[in-house]
Amino acid sequence: MDNNLKKLIPFVANYKKHIYLNVFFNIFYALFSTLLMVSMIPTLNVLFGLNKKVHQAPIYTGIGHIKGFAEEYLNYQITILTENSGFKIALLFVISIIIITAFLKNITNYFASYHVTRLRNGVLRDMRQKLYAKIVSLPVSYYSEKRKGDVMARMLGDINDVQNSFFQILELVVREPLTILFSIVTMFIISPKLTLFVFVFIPVSGIIISRIGKNLKHKSIKAQNENGIFISIVDETLGGLKVVKGYNAEKSFIQKFDDSINRLLRLSNSIGNKNNLASPLSEFLGIVTIAVLLWFGAQLVVEDKSITSATFITYIALAYTILTPAKAISRASYQVKTGLAAAERVFSLMDQENIIVDKPNAINKETFDDAIRLENINFRYEKENVLKQFTLEIPKGKTVALVGQSGSGKSTIANLLTRFYDVNEGKITIDNVDIKDLSMQSLRDLMGLVTQDSILFNDTIKYNIALGKPGATDEEIIEALKIANAYEFVKDLPLGIETNVGDSGNKLSGGQKQRLSIARAVLKNPPIMVLDEATSALDTESEKLVQVALENMMQNRTSVVIAHRLSTIQKADIIVVMQKGQIVEQGSHDELIKRNGMYNKLVSMQSFE
Length: 609
Description:
alpha/beta; ABC transporter transmembrane region fold; four-stranded antiparallel β-sheet
């Protein structure tokens, strides 16, 4: 069994009842499909006056003579009806057999489909839930290496392919083979000689079809990867539309998109052509078989007289009914190959190991009492260390600012404190407890984060601010907005805190978005604040409003401020000057100015990057 099929079993196991019922109804569907064809024999016999006259009810003598008993009993009933009620009533009787059989066939088909629909949609829901939980749980570092579009393609397209293809297997192993089996058994009972020809058709067509679909899985994987690339291009284009237009780069992006979509077109055409070939090929092979049956069977009817013309017509109809399930099997086998390729991509993401996880028996810490200490930290994103033997103490209630040029490792400190990344060597402690020993939830509950990019979600102001405290009252939200210097613009909005901020908060200005981010951190009310260049993207007027909001927020709190501008850090208790991942100076603003070192140089240049 394919490894990806095995991984699907736990999802399917939750819906065992629907599988059993689907199989149950499919068995009866296959049986009634065959009986529907067989029920044509008495109808044709009555129509052409070929039925044998039987005036005495036959006696059942065992399963070995079931065919003869069924024919005799039916002929007996038709004979009695014809003689007592006339030809029309007898014909109506045999036609009613067809109608009842057709009804039973279709009602079992409906119930089989009903249960497979419950199974497919339930598994789709469960897989999406698990995949989304995995996407959210994976560390930030995973997404710095992966395309967002590829992850989205796996969530949207690939899971659908898994759903659409794998549940063909139920038809592949139950309904269609049973339909073929019942038909062949019935055909064998009718005429063993003719049925030998059918046994040649099925394996030959199976071999030919499997040869054509040989490299379908490989091409499907390539197509699904390309699908991820083109979704990424769309995502990047929408995210950076101002830059695309501002630099007249539309042609470049259109070309990039066209190249991807054309590669996808070639792969999709190749896959589609092979899929499309399965059905006509199996039908053609079936027609060839039926042509041979017509030639051979006609001799049995006309010369040998071993079967009647009505029975032969039914036999041909039965042989033709094998074509539909044979086509379905060949088509489904192709789709399963596509599904295997999709499953490989889905499960590779689902099985992705999360390297930043809670330890067993992780500590839940609810208070911050003493200090944060970074002790001999080494950290690297790839090969070269971004932080080298970095040691720093952040006492409770103090504001510590990190300054330095771009690439000096300031933002890395914020990523390590919040455990978006883990240190390579050394340790970070809160009140002498290693943060790796704390549960992730309790660590992040102790911290409020305000980033350079004020991230807002396409929902109301109320939803965005209450993110860290879901049960917050409107009064608490308004109080947080006031502290963040944001209520003065929120109260003037048409719906106040119920106003939708738009995609990424684009209905608001940069300064307004940043003040809402601060309000979110204020409402959470954590003892430790991490401000990662919170004012760097703002104009001077907005910066002043945000700076007041930050000062309001930092009162009586421990704050780690990654600084971009001088105004943000002048009042800090300790200013740490960083260069190439190491501390070159630290002290208060006045002390560092007097030293006339690196900090003074940065101040004079007004270059806090």
